[in-house]
Amino acid sequence: MEPHSFEQDGIVYEVRFERTPEGWIARIRPEDGTQAHVFAFPNGVGFDPDDVRGSLIAGCEAAVARIPRRAPTRH
Question: Would the pTM of this model clear 0.70, i.e. be above it?
Answer without folding.
Answer: yes
